[in-house]
Amino acid sequence: MRKQTSRVVKNGQLIDEKEFYIEKDASDDYVYDVIRVINGRPLFAEDHYNRLARSLHGVGKNIPFSLDEMCGLIQKLLDANGVANDNVKIIIPGDRTGSDVYLMLMNAVYPAPADYEKGVDTELYRAVRTDPHVKKRNLALREATNEIIARDRVFEVILTDQNGDITEGSRSNIFFIRGDVVYTCSESGVLQGVTRKKIIDICRASGIEVKECIISAKSLGDYDAAFISGTSPKVLPIRRIGDVQMDVNNELLRRIMRLYDEEMERSCGK
Prior knowledge:
CATH superfamily of the largest domain: D-amino Acid Aminotransferase, subunit A, domain 2
Strand content: 25-35%
Low-confidence stretches: none
Order of helices and strands: EEEEHHEEHEHEEEEHEEEEH
Shape: globular
CATH class of the largest domain: Alpha Beta
Largest sheet: 9 strands, mixed
Structural class: alpha+beta
Oligomer: single chain
Number of strands: 15
Mean pLDDT: 89
Radius of gyration: 18 Å
Protein backbone atom coordinates (compact mmCIF):
# COMPACT_ATOMS: atom_id res chain seq x y z
CA MET A 1 0.00 0.00 0.00
CA ARG A 2 1.22 3.46 -0.91
CA LYS A 3 2.45 5.54 1.98
CA GLN A 4 0.98 8.97 2.59
CA THR A 5 2.86 12.00 1.35
CA SER A 6 2.03 15.47 2.52
CA ARG A 7 1.72 17.46 -0.69
CA VAL A 8 0.18 17.01 -4.15
CA VAL A 9 0.28 19.45 -7.08
CA LYS A 10 -3.10 20.39 -8.56
CA ASN A 11 -3.15 22.77 -11.51
CA GLY A 12 0.23 24.13 -10.50
CA GLN A 13 -0.70 24.72 -6.87
CA LEU A 14 0.24 22.68 -3.81
CA ILE A 15 -2.58 21.01 -1.90
CA ASP A 16 -2.68 18.60 1.03
CA GLU A 17 -3.05 14.98 0.05
CA LYS A 18 -6.25 14.74 2.09
CA GLU A 19 -7.81 17.02 -0.55
CA PHE A 20 -6.86 14.59 -3.35
CA TYR A 21 -9.75 12.25 -4.14
CA ILE A 22 -9.33 10.93 -7.68
CA GLU A 23 -7.43 7.72 -6.84
CA LYS A 24 -9.99 6.89 -4.14
CA ASP A 25 -12.93 7.19 -6.54
CA ALA A 26 -13.40 3.83 -8.26
CA SER A 27 -15.79 5.36 -10.81
CA ASP A 28 -13.27 7.92 -12.03
CA ASP A 29 -11.06 6.91 -14.96
CA TYR A 30 -8.11 9.02 -15.94
CA VAL A 31 -5.19 9.23 -18.31
CA TYR A 32 -1.83 9.08 -16.58
CA ASP A 33 1.88 8.56 -16.90
CA VAL A 34 4.57 7.59 -14.41
CA ILE A 35 8.04 9.12 -14.55
CA ARG A 36 10.99 7.92 -12.52
CA VAL A 37 13.06 10.64 -10.86
CA ILE A 38 16.70 9.98 -10.02
CA ASN A 39 18.63 12.57 -7.99
CA GLY A 40 15.99 15.15 -8.81
CA ARG A 41 16.05 14.57 -12.57
CA PRO A 42 13.12 13.02 -14.49
CA LEU A 43 14.26 9.98 -16.47
CA PHE A 44 13.49 10.15 -20.23
CA ALA A 45 11.24 13.16 -19.62
CA GLU A 46 10.64 13.99 -23.30
CA ASP A 47 9.62 10.40 -24.11
CA HIS A 48 7.13 10.36 -21.24
CA TYR A 49 5.78 13.75 -22.29
CA ASN A 50 5.19 12.51 -25.84
CA ARG A 51 3.47 9.34 -24.63
CA LEU A 52 1.20 11.32 -22.32
CA ALA A 53 0.29 13.56 -25.26
CA ARG A 54 -0.56 10.48 -27.36
CA SER A 55 -2.69 9.01 -24.59
CA LEU A 56 -4.63 12.26 -24.20
CA HIS A 57 -5.10 12.47 -27.96
CA GLY A 58 -6.62 8.98 -27.76
CA VAL A 59 -9.41 10.31 -25.53
CA GLY A 60 -9.87 13.51 -27.51
CA LYS A 61 -7.83 15.88 -25.36
CA ASN A 62 -4.69 17.94 -25.84
CA ILE A 63 -1.83 18.00 -23.38
CA PRO A 64 -2.26 21.18 -21.30
CA PHE A 65 1.40 22.00 -20.66
CA SER A 66 4.78 22.08 -22.37
CA LEU A 67 7.68 19.75 -21.65
CA ASP A 68 9.44 22.48 -19.67
CA GLU A 69 6.27 23.20 -17.70
CA MET A 70 5.88 19.50 -16.90
CA CYS A 71 9.45 19.34 -15.58
CA GLY A 72 8.79 22.47 -13.53
CA LEU A 73 5.70 20.88 -11.95
CA ILE A 74 7.70 17.76 -11.12
CA GLN A 75 10.38 19.88 -9.46
CA LYS A 76 7.75 21.75 -7.46
CA LEU A 77 6.35 18.44 -6.19
CA LEU A 78 9.81 17.12 -5.26
CA ASP A 79 10.78 20.32 -3.45
CA ALA A 80 7.52 20.44 -1.51
CA ASN A 81 8.02 16.89 -0.23
CA GLY A 82 11.81 16.99 0.22
CA VAL A 83 12.30 14.06 -2.17
CA ALA A 84 14.92 13.48 -4.88
CA ASN A 85 14.26 9.83 -5.83
CA ASP A 86 10.81 8.38 -6.51
CA ASN A 87 8.21 7.83 -9.20
CA VAL A 88 5.96 10.77 -10.06
CA LYS A 89 2.45 10.06 -11.31
CA ILE A 90 0.81 12.65 -13.57
CA ILE A 91 -2.97 12.31 -13.66
CA ILE A 92 -5.36 14.03 -16.08
CA PRO A 93 -9.04 13.04 -15.85
CA GLY A 94 -9.89 11.81 -19.33
CA ASP A 95 -13.68 11.82 -19.17
CA ARG A 96 -14.19 15.28 -17.73
CA THR A 97 -14.40 18.70 -19.28
CA GLY A 98 -11.56 21.05 -18.46
CA SER A 99 -7.93 20.19 -18.00
CA ASP A 100 -7.22 19.46 -14.35
CA VAL A 101 -3.67 18.21 -13.82
CA TYR A 102 -2.47 16.38 -10.73
CA LEU A 103 1.04 15.27 -9.77
CA MET A 104 1.72 12.96 -6.86
CA LEU A 105 4.59 10.94 -5.48
CA MET A 106 4.16 7.18 -5.54
CA ASN A 107 6.64 6.21 -2.82
CA ALA A 108 7.84 3.60 -5.28
CA VAL A 109 9.26 0.25 -4.21
CA TYR A 110 11.83 -1.01 -6.71
CA PRO A 111 13.00 -4.60 -7.23
CA ALA A 112 15.65 -5.78 -4.77
CA PRO A 113 19.21 -6.58 -5.95
CA ALA A 114 18.38 -10.27 -5.52
CA ASP A 115 15.56 -9.94 -8.05
CA TYR A 116 18.02 -8.75 -10.70
CA GLU A 117 20.42 -11.54 -9.78
CA LYS A 118 17.99 -14.47 -9.49
CA GLY A 119 15.06 -13.26 -11.58
CA VAL A 120 11.37 -13.12 -10.67
CA ASP A 121 8.38 -15.44 -11.04
CA THR A 122 5.35 -14.63 -13.20
CA GLU A 123 1.99 -16.16 -14.11
CA LEU A 124 -0.19 -15.97 -17.21
CA TYR A 125 -3.66 -14.39 -17.26
CA ARG A 126 -6.07 -13.99 -20.16
CA ALA A 127 -7.19 -10.39 -20.50
CA VAL A 128 -7.32 -7.88 -23.34
CA ARG A 129 -6.98 -4.11 -22.98
CA THR A 130 -9.61 -2.32 -25.08
CA ASP A 131 -7.23 0.47 -26.09
CA PRO A 132 -3.66 -0.53 -25.27
CA HIS A 133 -2.12 2.64 -26.75
CA VAL A 134 -3.84 4.87 -24.16
CA LYS A 135 -2.27 4.73 -20.71
CA LYS A 136 -5.51 4.90 -18.75
CA ARG A 137 -6.56 3.47 -15.42
CA ASN A 138 -8.26 0.09 -15.72
CA LEU A 139 -9.33 -0.62 -12.17
CA ALA A 140 -10.94 -4.01 -12.85
CA LEU A 141 -7.82 -5.37 -14.55
CA ARG A 142 -5.54 -3.96 -11.87
CA GLU A 143 -7.58 -5.53 -9.08
CA ALA A 144 -7.71 -8.91 -10.84
CA THR A 145 -3.98 -9.03 -11.49
CA ASN A 146 -3.11 -7.75 -8.02
CA GLU A 147 -5.13 -10.63 -6.59
CA ILE A 148 -3.11 -13.13 -8.64
CA ILE A 149 0.17 -11.50 -7.64
CA ALA A 150 -0.76 -11.72 -3.95
CA ARG A 151 -2.26 -15.22 -4.14
CA ASP A 152 0.52 -16.83 -6.17
CA ARG A 153 3.34 -14.72 -4.73
CA VAL A 154 4.63 -13.67 -8.12
CA PHE A 155 6.16 -10.39 -9.24
CA GLU A 156 4.06 -9.83 -12.36
CA VAL A 157 1.15 -11.21 -14.37
CA ILE A 158 1.68 -11.64 -18.11
CA LEU A 159 -1.42 -11.06 -20.21
CA THR A 160 -2.55 -13.21 -23.14
CA ASP A 161 -5.23 -12.40 -25.69
CA GLN A 162 -8.19 -14.47 -26.89
CA ASN A 163 -5.85 -16.49 -29.12
CA GLY A 164 -3.50 -17.37 -26.29
CA ASP A 165 -0.82 -15.01 -27.57
CA ILE A 166 1.24 -12.94 -25.15
CA THR A 167 0.74 -9.18 -25.24
CA GLU A 168 2.28 -7.48 -22.20
CA GLY A 169 2.52 -7.50 -18.44
CA SER A 170 -0.18 -6.02 -16.23
CA ARG A 171 2.17 -3.08 -15.61
CA SER A 172 5.12 -3.79 -17.87
CA ASN A 173 6.25 -4.91 -21.31
CA ILE A 174 7.75 -8.34 -21.95
CA PHE A 175 10.74 -9.46 -24.04
CA PHE A 176 12.07 -12.90 -24.96
CA ILE A 177 15.48 -14.11 -26.14
CA ARG A 178 16.32 -17.02 -28.39
CA GLY A 179 19.89 -17.38 -29.55
CA ASP A 180 21.17 -13.94 -30.55
CA VAL A 181 17.74 -12.45 -31.25
CA VAL A 182 15.37 -10.50 -28.99
CA TYR A 183 11.63 -10.95 -29.51
CA THR A 184 8.74 -8.83 -28.30
CA CYS A 185 5.08 -8.54 -29.10
CA SER A 186 3.91 -6.36 -31.97
CA GLU A 187 3.51 -2.70 -31.06
CA SER A 188 -0.07 -2.72 -32.34
CA GLY A 189 -1.38 -4.71 -29.39
CA VAL A 190 0.58 -3.35 -26.43
CA LEU A 191 1.15 -0.16 -24.49
CA GLN A 192 4.02 1.65 -26.14
CA GLY A 193 6.18 1.74 -23.03
CA VAL A 194 8.98 4.28 -22.78
CA THR A 195 11.35 1.66 -21.36
CA ARG A 196 10.30 -0.75 -24.12
CA LYS A 197 11.15 1.82 -26.78
CA LYS A 198 14.51 2.59 -25.19
CA ILE A 199 15.42 -1.10 -25.05
CA ILE A 200 14.55 -1.63 -28.71
CA ASP A 201 16.54 1.46 -29.73
CA ILE A 202 19.52 0.46 -27.58
CA CYS A 203 19.55 -3.08 -28.94
CA ARG A 204 19.39 -2.04 -32.57
CA ALA A 205 22.07 0.63 -32.06
CA SER A 206 24.29 -2.08 -30.54
CA GLY A 207 23.78 -4.54 -33.38
CA ILE A 208 21.30 -6.74 -31.50
CA GLU A 209 18.44 -7.93 -33.70
CA VAL A 210 14.94 -7.26 -32.36
CA LYS A 211 11.86 -8.88 -33.89
CA GLU A 212 8.33 -7.71 -33.15
CA CYS A 213 6.00 -10.63 -33.73
CA ILE A 214 3.25 -12.87 -32.37
CA ILE A 215 4.43 -14.88 -29.37
CA SER A 216 2.18 -17.77 -28.40
CA ALA A 217 2.06 -18.79 -24.76
CA LYS A 218 2.36 -22.38 -26.02
CA SER A 219 5.81 -21.56 -27.45
CA LEU A 220 7.41 -20.30 -24.23
CA GLY A 221 9.60 -23.38 -23.97
CA ASP A 222 11.23 -22.42 -27.27
CA TYR A 223 12.87 -19.34 -25.75
CA ASP A 224 16.09 -19.22 -23.75
CA ALA A 225 15.37 -16.21 -21.55
CA ALA A 226 12.80 -13.50 -20.87
CA PHE A 227 12.65 -10.17 -19.10
CA ILE A 228 10.26 -7.50 -17.88
CA SER A 229 10.70 -3.86 -18.82
CA GLY A 230 9.18 -0.84 -17.13
CA THR A 231 9.74 2.44 -15.31
CA SER A 232 10.37 0.80 -11.95
CA PRO A 233 11.81 -2.64 -12.88
CA LYS A 234 14.09 -1.37 -15.69
CA VAL A 235 15.30 -4.63 -17.31
CA LEU A 236 14.33 -7.40 -14.91
CA PRO A 237 15.07 -11.09 -15.62
CA ILE A 238 12.17 -13.54 -15.48
CA ARG A 239 12.94 -16.82 -13.72
CA ARG A 240 9.62 -18.54 -14.37
CA ILE A 241 6.48 -18.04 -16.46
CA GLY A 242 3.89 -20.43 -15.10
CA ASP A 243 5.68 -23.79 -15.22
CA VAL A 244 8.28 -22.72 -17.80
CA GLN A 245 11.76 -21.97 -16.46
CA MET A 246 13.95 -19.29 -18.03
CA ASP A 247 17.73 -18.73 -17.95
CA VAL A 248 18.35 -15.66 -15.81
CA ASN A 249 22.09 -15.72 -16.56
CA ASN A 250 21.69 -15.60 -20.33
CA GLU A 251 24.63 -13.62 -21.74
CA LEU A 252 22.53 -11.45 -24.07
CA LEU A 253 20.05 -10.67 -21.30
CA ARG A 254 22.86 -9.52 -19.01
CA ARG A 255 24.30 -7.37 -21.80
CA ILE A 256 20.96 -5.64 -22.35
CA MET A 257 20.68 -4.97 -18.61
CA ARG A 258 24.08 -3.22 -18.68
CA LEU A 259 23.23 -1.25 -21.82
CA TYR A 260 19.99 0.03 -20.33
CA ASP A 261 21.63 1.05 -17.04
CA GLU A 262 24.22 2.99 -19.05
CA GLU A 263 21.42 4.76 -20.97
CA MET A 264 19.76 5.71 -17.68
CA GLU A 265 23.00 7.21 -16.42
CA ARG A 266 23.35 9.31 -19.57
CA SER A 267 19.76 10.53 -19.27
CA CYS A 268 20.23 11.61 -15.68
CA GLY A 269 23.57 13.26 -16.36
CA LYS A 270 25.62 11.05 -14.08
